[in-house]
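Hi,

Apologies if this is the wrong queue. I'm a grad student, and the batch job for RagB/SusD family nutrient uptake outer membrane protein from Arachidicoccus ginsenosidivorans produced an output file that my downstream script rejects. I'm not sure whether the problem is my script or the file. Here is the sequence I used:
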Amino acid sequence: MKFTINKYYLLGLSLMAVTLFTGCAKFVDKPPLDNFSNDEYWTSETNVRTYNWGFYEMFTGFGTGTNGDFYFSWLSDDQAPSGFTNFVLNAPASDGRWTFANIRKANIMLENIDKVPMDDEAKNHWKGVARFFRALAYFRLVKVFGDVPWINKSLDISEDDIIYKPRDSRALVMDSVLSDLNFAYANLRQEDQANTVNKDVALALISRVGLYAGTYRKYHTELSLPDAEKFLTASKDASTKLMTAGYTLNADFRTVYSSLDLSKDPECILYKQYEPGVLTHSVIGYTNSSTTMAGLNKNAVESFVCTDGFPIGVSTHYEGDADLDHTLANRDKRLLETISDFLCYKTHLVNGLSASTGYRPAKFLQPADENQLAPYNSTDAPIFWLPEILDNYAEACAELDDMGKYTITQADLDKSVNKLRARSGVPALQVVGHQGTAIGGVAFTDPDKDSDVPSLIWEIRRERRVELMMCGFRFYDLMRWKKGEKLDNTKIQISSWGLKCLLPINWI
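Support response: The file is valid. Your script probably expects a header line. Output copied below for reference.
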Protein backbone atom coordinates (compact mmCIF):
# COMPACT_ATOMS: atom_id res chain seq x y z
CA MET A 1 0.00 0.00 0.00
CA LYS A 2 2.80 2.30 0.87
CA PHE A 3 4.35 1.61 -2.49
CA THR A 4 1.06 2.40 -4.25
CA ILE A 5 0.67 5.73 -2.48
CA ASN A 6 4.22 6.77 -3.32
CA LYS A 7 3.75 5.76 -6.93
CA TYR A 8 0.66 7.93 -7.40
CA TYR A 9 2.19 10.69 -5.35
CA LEU A 10 5.24 10.77 -7.57
CA LEU A 11 3.07 10.62 -10.66
CA GLY A 12 1.09 13.60 -9.41
CA LEU A 13 4.24 15.56 -8.74
CA SER A 14 5.48 14.78 -12.22
CA LEU A 15 2.24 16.02 -13.78
CA MET A 16 2.36 19.19 -11.70
CA ALA A 17 5.95 19.83 -12.76
CA VAL A 18 5.06 19.39 -16.43
CA THR A 19 2.14 21.79 -16.04
CA LEU A 20 4.21 24.36 -14.19
CA PHE A 21 7.10 24.25 -16.64
CA THR A 22 4.70 24.43 -19.59
CA GLY A 23 2.97 27.44 -18.07
CA CYS A 24 6.34 29.01 -17.35
CA ALA A 25 7.45 28.52 -20.93
CA LYS A 26 4.26 30.17 -22.20
CA PHE A 27 4.78 33.06 -19.79
CA VAL A 28 8.39 33.77 -20.73
CA ASP A 29 7.51 33.52 -24.43
CA LYS A 30 5.12 36.47 -24.13
CA PRO A 31 6.42 39.79 -25.51
CA PRO A 32 7.06 42.56 -22.97
CA LEU A 33 3.87 44.43 -22.13
CA ASP A 34 5.64 47.82 -22.28
CA ASN A 35 6.98 47.34 -25.84
CA PHE A 36 5.37 47.04 -29.26
CA SER A 37 6.23 44.27 -31.65
CA ASN A 38 7.15 45.46 -35.13
CA ASP A 39 3.76 44.49 -36.57
CA GLU A 40 1.86 46.06 -33.67
CA TYR A 41 3.71 49.35 -34.02
CA TRP A 42 3.07 50.18 -37.68
CA THR A 43 -0.67 50.74 -37.28
CA SER A 44 -1.19 54.52 -37.44
CA GLU A 45 0.27 57.73 -38.83
CA THR A 46 0.67 58.94 -35.25
CA ASN A 47 3.07 56.08 -34.58
CA VAL A 48 4.99 56.84 -37.78
CA ARG A 49 5.34 60.47 -36.69
CA THR A 50 6.55 59.39 -33.26
CA TYR A 51 9.12 57.07 -34.84
CA ASN A 52 10.48 59.90 -36.98
CA TRP A 53 11.21 62.26 -34.07
CA GLY A 54 14.38 60.32 -33.30
CA PHE A 55 15.91 61.47 -36.59
CA TYR A 56 15.95 65.10 -35.47
CA GLU A 57 18.83 64.44 -33.08
CA MET A 58 20.96 64.39 -36.23
CA PHE A 59 20.69 68.18 -36.36
CA THR A 60 23.46 69.22 -33.98
CA GLY A 61 22.93 72.98 -34.05
CA PHE A 62 24.68 74.57 -31.09
CA GLY A 63 25.09 71.11 -29.55
CA THR A 64 24.83 70.69 -25.79
CA GLY A 65 28.46 70.89 -24.65
CA THR A 66 31.43 71.48 -26.93
CA ASN A 67 30.10 69.41 -29.82
CA GLY A 68 28.15 72.06 -31.74
CA ASP A 69 28.44 72.98 -35.40
CA PHE A 70 28.89 76.64 -34.45
CA TYR A 71 32.02 78.15 -32.85
CA PHE A 72 33.39 74.72 -31.81
CA SER A 73 34.48 73.74 -35.35
CA TRP A 74 38.03 74.86 -34.69
CA LEU A 75 39.73 72.77 -37.37
CA SER A 76 39.88 75.49 -40.03
CA ASP A 77 41.89 78.55 -40.96
CA ASP A 78 39.41 80.88 -39.21
CA GLN A 79 40.03 80.26 -35.51
CA ALA A 80 43.00 79.53 -33.28
CA PRO A 81 42.26 77.04 -30.48
CA SER A 82 43.59 77.86 -27.04
CA GLY A 83 46.19 75.08 -27.30
CA PHE A 84 48.09 73.08 -29.87
CA THR A 85 46.59 69.87 -31.23
CA ASN A 86 48.69 66.89 -32.28
CA PHE A 87 47.18 64.76 -35.04
CA VAL A 88 47.91 61.05 -35.27
CA LEU A 89 48.74 59.97 -38.82
CA ASN A 90 47.80 56.31 -38.47
CA ALA A 91 44.19 55.23 -38.93
CA PRO A 92 42.34 54.91 -35.60
CA ALA A 93 40.85 51.57 -34.58
CA SER A 94 37.41 53.15 -34.28
CA ASP A 95 35.60 56.42 -34.90
CA GLY A 96 32.27 57.44 -33.44
CA ARG A 97 31.28 59.01 -36.75
CA TRP A 98 31.34 55.59 -38.46
CA THR A 99 27.74 54.81 -37.57
CA PHE A 100 24.84 53.47 -39.60
CA ALA A 101 22.22 53.71 -36.85
CA ASN A 102 20.09 56.35 -38.56
CA ILE A 103 20.50 54.63 -41.92
CA ARG A 104 19.13 51.42 -40.40
CA LYS A 105 16.35 53.40 -38.74
CA ALA A 106 15.38 54.95 -42.09
CA ASN A 107 15.46 51.58 -43.85
CA ILE A 108 13.18 50.04 -41.21
CA MET A 109 10.74 52.92 -41.67
CA LEU A 110 10.75 52.51 -45.45
CA GLU A 111 10.09 48.78 -45.17
CA ASN A 112 7.06 49.23 -42.91
CA ILE A 113 5.23 52.34 -44.09
CA ASP A 114 3.08 50.48 -46.61
CA LYS A 115 1.63 48.42 -43.73
CA VAL A 116 0.16 51.53 -42.11
CA PRO A 117 -3.52 52.28 -42.86
CA MET A 118 -3.16 55.75 -44.41
CA ASP A 119 -3.62 57.19 -47.89
CA ASP A 120 -0.91 57.25 -50.56
CA GLU A 121 -0.15 60.94 -50.00
CA ALA A 122 0.69 60.27 -46.36
CA LYS A 123 2.69 57.14 -47.18
CA ASN A 124 4.75 59.00 -49.78
CA HIS A 125 5.34 61.92 -47.40
CA TRP A 126 6.76 59.64 -44.72
CA LYS A 127 8.83 57.73 -47.25
CA GLY A 128 10.21 61.13 -48.25
CA VAL A 129 11.08 61.88 -44.62
CA ALA A 130 12.91 58.56 -44.25
CA ARG A 131 14.84 59.05 -47.49
CA PHE A 132 15.72 62.63 -46.51
CA PHE A 133 17.35 61.47 -43.29
CA ARG A 134 19.03 58.51 -44.96
CA ALA A 135 20.52 60.96 -47.47
CA LEU A 136 21.66 63.26 -44.67
CA ALA A 137 23.34 60.39 -42.81
CA TYR A 138 25.16 59.21 -45.93
CA PHE A 139 26.20 62.75 -46.88
CA ARG A 140 27.93 63.09 -43.52
CA LEU A 141 29.62 59.71 -43.85
CA VAL A 142 30.97 60.54 -47.30
CA LYS A 143 32.36 63.90 -46.15
CA VAL A 144 34.37 62.18 -43.42
CA PHE A 145 35.26 58.79 -44.93
CA GLY A 146 34.87 59.06 -48.71
CA ASP A 147 33.88 55.60 -49.97
CA VAL A 148 31.32 53.89 -47.70
CA PRO A 149 29.06 50.84 -48.09
CA TRP A 150 25.63 51.76 -49.49
CA ILE A 151 22.94 49.80 -47.63
CA ASN A 152 19.27 50.34 -48.51
CA LYS A 153 17.63 47.62 -46.40
CA SER A 154 17.51 46.74 -42.72
CA LEU A 155 19.97 43.95 -42.07
CA ASP A 156 19.63 40.78 -40.04
CA ILE A 157 22.59 39.87 -37.85
CA SER A 158 23.19 36.81 -40.03
CA GLU A 159 23.74 38.81 -43.23
CA ASP A 160 27.51 38.90 -42.95
CA ASP A 161 27.95 39.24 -46.71
CA ILE A 162 26.33 42.69 -46.55
CA ILE A 163 27.47 43.73 -43.08
CA TYR A 164 31.10 43.20 -44.08
CA LYS A 165 30.76 44.14 -47.74
CA PRO A 166 33.49 46.33 -49.30
CA ARG A 167 32.91 50.06 -49.47
CA ASP A 168 31.03 51.43 -52.46
CA SER A 169 32.48 54.38 -54.34
CA ARG A 170 31.60 57.86 -53.18
CA ALA A 171 30.29 58.45 -56.72
CA LEU A 172 27.68 55.69 -56.33
CA VAL A 173 26.78 56.75 -52.80
CA MET A 174 26.36 60.45 -53.64
CA ASP A 175 24.30 59.58 -56.73
CA SER A 176 22.06 57.57 -54.38
CA VAL A 177 21.94 60.49 -51.94
CA LEU A 178 20.77 62.84 -54.68
CA SER A 179 18.17 60.27 -55.77
CA ASP A 180 16.86 60.07 -52.20
CA LEU A 181 16.66 63.85 -51.95
CA ASN A 182 14.90 64.22 -55.29
CA PHE A 183 12.32 61.67 -54.12
CA ALA A 184 11.97 63.53 -50.83
CA TYR A 185 11.37 66.87 -52.56
CA ALA A 186 8.81 65.34 -54.92
CA ASN A 187 6.82 63.63 -52.15
CA LEU A 188 7.20 65.64 -48.94
CA ARG A 189 4.35 67.88 -47.87
CA GLN A 190 4.85 71.58 -48.37
CA GLU A 191 3.77 72.02 -44.77
CA ASP A 192 3.42 69.36 -42.10
CA GLN A 193 4.01 70.35 -38.49
CA ALA A 194 5.91 73.56 -37.80
CA ASN A 195 9.71 73.34 -37.97
CA THR A 196 9.82 69.85 -39.45
CA VAL A 197 11.18 68.40 -42.68
CA ASN A 198 9.16 69.57 -45.70
CA LYS A 199 9.74 70.43 -49.37
CA ASP A 200 11.75 73.56 -48.55
CA VAL A 201 14.02 71.67 -46.16
CA ALA A 202 14.65 69.06 -48.85
CA LEU A 203 15.56 71.84 -51.30
CA ALA A 204 17.96 73.33 -48.74
CA LEU A 205 19.78 70.02 -48.36
CA ILE A 206 19.91 69.56 -52.15
CA SER A 207 21.44 73.03 -52.37
CA ARG A 208 24.09 72.08 -49.80
CA VAL A 209 24.79 68.56 -51.07
CA GLY A 210 24.86 69.57 -54.72
CA LEU A 211 27.42 72.31 -54.14
CA TYR A 212 29.64 70.05 -52.05
CA ALA A 213 29.56 67.07 -54.42
CA GLY A 214 29.80 69.19 -57.57
CA THR A 215 32.86 71.16 -56.50
CA TYR A 216 34.50 68.09 -54.96
CA ARG A 217 34.19 66.31 -58.31
CA LYS A 218 35.44 69.34 -60.20
CA TYR A 219 38.57 69.94 -58.13
CA HIS A 220 39.56 66.40 -57.14
CA THR A 221 40.46 65.40 -60.67
CA GLU A 222 42.73 62.62 -59.37
CA LEU A 223 39.59 60.64 -58.47
CA SER A 224 38.04 60.92 -61.97
CA LEU A 225 34.58 61.47 -60.47
CA PRO A 226 31.86 62.15 -63.08
CA ASP A 227 28.85 64.48 -63.15
CA ALA A 228 30.13 67.63 -61.45
CA GLU A 229 27.75 69.58 -63.70
CA LYS A 230 24.77 67.49 -62.58
CA PHE A 231 25.35 68.22 -58.90
CA LEU A 232 26.13 71.92 -59.38
CA THR A 233 23.00 72.33 -61.49
CA ALA A 234 20.96 70.58 -58.80
CA SER A 235 22.34 73.03 -56.24
CA LYS A 236 21.63 76.04 -58.44
CA ASP A 237 18.08 74.93 -59.26
CA ALA A 238 17.21 74.08 -55.65
CA SER A 239 18.62 77.41 -54.48
CA THR A 240 16.59 79.26 -57.13
CA LYS A 241 13.36 77.71 -55.84
CA LEU A 242 14.15 78.72 -52.26
CA MET A 243 15.18 82.25 -53.26
CA THR A 244 11.66 82.78 -54.62
CA ALA A 245 9.84 80.96 -51.80
CA GLY A 246 9.20 84.00 -49.61
CA TYR A 247 12.25 83.92 -47.31
CA THR A 248 13.86 87.31 -46.68
CA LEU A 249 16.99 88.53 -44.92
CA ASN A 250 16.90 89.98 -41.43
CA ALA A 251 17.93 93.61 -41.25
CA ASP A 252 20.70 92.54 -38.87
CA PHE A 253 23.42 89.96 -39.63
CA ARG A 254 23.60 88.59 -36.05
CA THR A 255 19.89 88.05 -35.43
CA VAL A 256 19.72 84.48 -36.71
CA TYR A 257 22.71 83.46 -34.54
CA SER A 258 21.56 85.08 -31.30
CA SER A 259 17.79 84.72 -31.17
CA LEU A 260 15.85 83.22 -28.29
CA ASP A 261 13.06 82.32 -30.73
CA LEU A 262 13.62 81.61 -34.44
CA SER A 263 10.03 80.49 -35.07
CA LYS A 264 9.19 83.72 -36.91
CA ASP A 265 12.63 84.50 -38.31
CA PRO A 266 12.13 85.40 -42.02
CA GLU A 267 15.40 83.86 -43.22
CA CYS A 268 15.18 80.60 -41.26
CA ILE A 269 14.13 77.44 -43.13
CA LEU A 270 14.71 74.99 -40.26
CA TYR A 271 16.13 75.55 -36.78
CA LYS A 272 16.95 73.69 -33.58
CA GLN A 273 14.90 74.89 -30.65
CA TYR A 274 16.42 75.29 -27.19
CA GLU A 275 14.46 75.88 -23.98
CA PRO A 276 15.70 76.64 -20.43
CA GLY A 277 15.51 73.55 -18.26
CA VAL A 278 14.74 71.30 -21.25
CA LEU A 279 17.54 71.54 -23.80
CA THR A 280 20.38 74.06 -23.56
CA HIS A 281 23.84 74.65 -25.00
CA SER A 282 27.21 76.26 -24.24
CA VAL A 283 28.02 78.59 -27.13
CA ILE A 284 27.33 81.82 -25.26
CA GLY A 285 29.11 80.58 -22.15
CA TYR A 286 32.23 79.62 -24.08
CA THR A 287 32.38 82.99 -25.87
CA ASN A 288 31.72 85.06 -22.76
CA SER A 289 34.13 83.59 -20.25
CA SER A 290 37.55 83.99 -18.67
CA THR A 291 38.33 80.53 -20.05
CA THR A 292 40.49 81.20 -23.08
CA MET A 293 38.29 81.38 -26.17
CA ALA A 294 39.23 80.17 -29.65
CA GLY A 295 39.70 83.60 -31.15
CA LEU A 296 39.54 84.52 -34.80
CA ASN A 297 42.93 84.58 -36.43
CA LYS A 298 44.35 87.54 -38.30
CA ASN A 299 43.78 86.03 -41.73
CA ALA A 300 40.08 85.60 -40.98
CA VAL A 301 39.80 89.21 -39.79
CA GLU A 302 41.60 90.42 -42.90
CA SER A 303 39.17 88.56 -45.17
CA PHE A 304 36.44 91.15 -44.47
CA VAL A 305 36.43 93.87 -47.13
CA CYS A 306 36.31 97.62 -46.56
CA THR A 307 33.25 99.84 -46.85
CA ASP A 308 34.21 100.70 -50.43
CA GLY A 309 33.79 97.01 -51.28
CA PHE A 310 37.46 96.30 -52.01
CA PRO A 311 39.72 93.84 -50.15
CA ILE A 312 42.17 95.43 -47.72
CA GLY A 313 45.05 94.82 -50.14
CA VAL A 314 43.34 97.04 -52.72
CA SER A 315 41.16 99.47 -50.76
CA THR A 316 42.23 103.05 -50.06
CA HIS A 317 39.94 102.99 -47.02
CA TYR A 318 41.96 100.45 -45.06
CA GLU A 319 43.64 102.09 -42.05
CA GLY A 320 46.01 99.26 -41.18
CA ASP A 321 46.24 97.21 -38.00
CA ALA A 322 48.29 99.31 -35.60
CA ASP A 323 45.44 98.88 -33.11
CA LEU A 324 41.93 97.48 -33.13
CA ASP A 325 40.30 100.85 -33.78
CA HIS A 326 42.23 101.12 -37.03
CA THR A 327 41.54 97.47 -37.88
CA LEU A 328 37.77 97.91 -37.53
CA ALA A 329 37.56 101.33 -39.19
CA ASN A 330 35.81 101.46 -42.58
CA ARG A 331 35.13 97.72 -42.65
CA ASP A 332 32.27 95.43 -43.64
CA LYS A 333 29.68 95.57 -40.81
CA ARG A 334 29.87 91.80 -40.47
CA LEU A 335 33.34 92.13 -38.97
CA LEU A 336 32.02 94.38 -36.20
CA GLU A 337 29.24 91.87 -35.52
CA THR A 338 31.57 88.85 -35.57
CA ILE A 339 34.21 90.02 -33.06
CA SER A 340 34.19 92.36 -30.07
CA ASP A 341 35.36 95.95 -30.38
CA PHE A 342 38.10 95.37 -27.81
CA LEU A 343 41.06 93.00 -27.70
CA CYS A 344 41.41 90.46 -24.92
CA TYR A 345 44.54 88.40 -24.39
CA LYS A 346 45.63 85.38 -22.43
CA THR A 347 47.69 87.31 -19.90
CA HIS A 348 46.18 90.80 -20.22
CA LEU A 349 42.50 90.21 -19.54
CA VAL A 350 39.92 92.79 -20.55
CA ASN A 351 36.62 92.65 -18.62
CA GLY A 352 37.78 89.27 -17.31
CA LEU A 353 37.82 87.83 -20.84
CA SER A 354 40.54 85.92 -22.65
CA ALA A 355 40.90 84.89 -26.31
CA SER A 356 43.69 82.93 -27.96
CA THR A 357 44.36 85.67 -30.51
CA GLY A 358 42.91 88.75 -28.87
CA TYR A 359 40.02 88.72 -31.35
CA ARG A 360 37.10 87.59 -29.23
CA PRO A 361 34.06 86.02 -30.99
CA ALA A 362 30.88 88.05 -30.41
CA LYS A 363 28.60 86.66 -33.09
CA PHE A 364 26.53 84.46 -30.78
CA LEU A 365 26.13 86.68 -27.72
CA GLN A 366 22.63 87.40 -26.40
CA PRO A 367 22.42 89.53 -23.23
CA ALA A 368 18.72 88.69 -22.85
CA ASP A 369 19.43 84.99 -22.31
CA GLU A 370 18.54 84.39 -18.68
CA ASN A 371 21.67 82.33 -18.05
CA GLN A 372 24.95 83.30 -19.70
CA LEU A 373 26.89 80.36 -18.26
CA ALA A 374 27.64 77.12 -20.08
CA PRO A 375 25.80 74.79 -20.49
CA TYR A 376 22.60 76.72 -19.78
CA ASN A 377 22.24 78.89 -22.91
CA SER A 378 18.92 78.76 -24.75
CA THR A 379 19.25 80.68 -28.01
CA ASP A 380 17.96 78.77 -31.03
CA ALA A 381 20.34 77.49 -33.73
CA PRO A 382 19.69 77.76 -37.48
CA ILE A 383 20.00 74.50 -39.41
CA PHE A 384 19.14 75.80 -42.89
CA TRP A 385 18.87 79.53 -43.49
CA LEU A 386 18.72 81.94 -46.44
CA PRO A 387 22.28 83.37 -46.40
CA GLU A 388 23.74 79.90 -47.02
CA ILE A 389 21.33 79.40 -49.93
CA LEU A 390 22.35 82.73 -51.48
CA ASP A 391 26.03 81.82 -51.16
CA ASN A 392 25.37 78.36 -52.60
CA TYR A 393 23.58 79.84 -55.60
CA ALA A 394 26.33 82.32 -56.45
CA GLU A 395 29.07 79.72 -56.12
CA ALA A 396 27.22 77.09 -58.17
CA CYS A 397 26.63 79.65 -60.95
CA ALA A 398 30.28 80.73 -60.94
CA GLU A 399 31.58 77.16 -60.98
CA LEU A 400 29.29 76.19 -63.85
CA ASP A 401 30.40 79.32 -65.71
CA ASP A 402 34.04 78.38 -65.17
CA MET A 403 33.27 74.95 -66.65
CA GLY A 404 31.60 76.51 -69.70
CA LYS A 405 28.22 75.04 -68.71
CA TYR A 406 26.49 78.30 -67.78
CA THR A 407 27.00 82.03 -68.26
CA ILE A 408 26.89 83.91 -64.98
CA THR A 409 25.33 87.37 -65.15
CA GLN A 410 25.19 90.46 -62.99
CA ALA A 411 21.61 89.52 -62.16
CA ASP A 412 22.86 86.27 -60.61
CA LEU A 413 25.13 88.19 -58.25
CA ASP A 414 22.52 90.86 -57.49
CA LYS A 415 19.95 88.34 -56.30
CA SER A 416 22.44 86.40 -54.19
CA VAL A 417 25.70 87.63 -52.63
CA ASN A 418 25.01 91.29 -53.35
CA LYS A 419 21.97 91.12 -51.08
CA LEU A 420 24.29 90.03 -48.28
CA ARG A 421 26.78 92.77 -49.11
CA ALA A 422 24.05 95.43 -49.19
CA ARG A 423 22.83 94.40 -45.74
CA SER A 424 26.39 94.87 -44.48
CA GLY A 425 26.92 98.29 -46.04
CA VAL A 426 29.19 97.03 -48.83
CA PRO A 427 28.86 97.99 -52.53
CA ALA A 428 27.81 95.36 -55.05
CA LEU A 429 30.30 92.94 -56.55
CA GLN A 430 30.34 93.13 -60.35
CA VAL A 431 31.27 90.47 -62.88
CA VAL A 432 33.59 91.61 -65.67
CA GLY A 433 34.20 89.45 -68.73
CA HIS A 434 34.97 85.84 -67.94
CA GLN A 435 35.33 85.52 -64.14
CA GLY A 436 36.73 89.03 -63.63
CA THR A 437 35.53 91.35 -60.84
CA ALA A 438 34.89 95.04 -60.31
CA ILE A 439 33.39 97.45 -57.78
CA GLY A 440 31.62 100.51 -59.20
CA GLY A 441 33.11 99.77 -62.60
CA VAL A 442 36.68 99.61 -61.25
CA ALA A 443 38.22 96.23 -62.01
CA PHE A 444 40.35 94.65 -59.31
CA THR A 445 42.11 91.46 -58.26
CA ASP A 446 42.92 90.68 -54.64
CA PRO A 447 46.72 90.39 -54.34
CA ASP A 448 46.19 87.54 -51.85
CA LYS A 449 44.13 85.50 -54.34
CA ASP A 450 45.20 81.92 -54.99
CA SER A 451 46.79 81.81 -58.44
CA ASP A 452 44.67 78.86 -59.59
CA VAL A 453 41.33 80.48 -58.71
CA PRO A 454 39.59 83.08 -60.93
CA SER A 455 38.86 86.40 -59.27
CA LEU A 456 35.08 85.94 -59.35
CA ILE A 457 35.17 82.54 -57.63
CA TRP A 458 37.70 83.90 -55.12
CA GLU A 459 35.42 86.78 -54.15
CA ILE A 460 32.36 84.53 -53.91
CA ARG A 461 34.34 82.21 -51.63
CA ARG A 462 35.24 85.26 -49.54
CA GLU A 463 31.54 86.12 -49.22
CA ARG A 464 30.81 82.60 -48.05
CA ARG A 465 33.64 82.70 -45.55
CA VAL A 466 32.68 85.96 -43.86
CA GLU A 467 28.92 85.35 -43.93
CA LEU A 468 29.14 81.82 -42.51
CA MET A 469 32.23 82.19 -40.31
CA MET A 470 32.20 79.89 -37.26
CA CYS A 471 29.14 78.06 -38.63
CA GLY A 472 30.84 74.72 -39.28
CA PHE A 473 31.33 75.03 -43.05
CA ARG A 474 34.92 76.17 -43.49
CA PHE A 475 36.82 72.89 -43.04
CA TYR A 476 34.69 70.99 -45.54
CA ASP A 477 34.77 73.98 -47.91
CA LEU A 478 38.57 73.77 -47.95
CA MET A 479 38.37 70.02 -48.52
CA ARG A 480 35.99 70.23 -51.49
CA TRP A 481 38.08 73.02 -53.05
CA LYS A 482 41.21 70.88 -52.57
CA LYS A 483 42.72 73.61 -50.40
CA GLY A 484 43.91 71.52 -47.47
CA GLU A 485 47.27 73.28 -47.62
CA LYS A 486 45.64 76.25 -45.91
CA LEU A 487 45.67 74.10 -42.77
CA ASP A 488 49.30 73.01 -43.20
CA ASN A 489 51.56 75.29 -41.19
CA THR A 490 54.69 73.48 -42.41
CA LYS A 491 54.00 74.94 -45.85
CA ILE A 492 52.56 78.38 -45.17
CA GLN A 493 53.95 78.99 -41.65
CA ILE A 494 50.86 81.01 -40.83
CA SER A 495 48.54 78.33 -39.52
CA SER A 496 45.43 79.09 -37.53
CA TRP A 497 47.67 79.24 -34.46
CA GLY A 498 50.24 81.49 -36.06
CA LEU A 499 47.82 83.99 -37.58
CA LYS A 500 47.59 86.12 -34.46
CA CYS A 501 46.99 89.81 -34.19
CA LEU A 502 50.03 92.04 -33.82
CA LEU A 503 50.66 91.85 -30.09
CA PRO A 504 53.71 91.80 -27.86
CA ILE A 505 54.80 88.17 -27.69
CA ASN A 506 54.46 88.03 -23.90
CA TRP A 507 50.80 89.02 -24.18
CA ILE A 508 49.82 85.98 -26.24
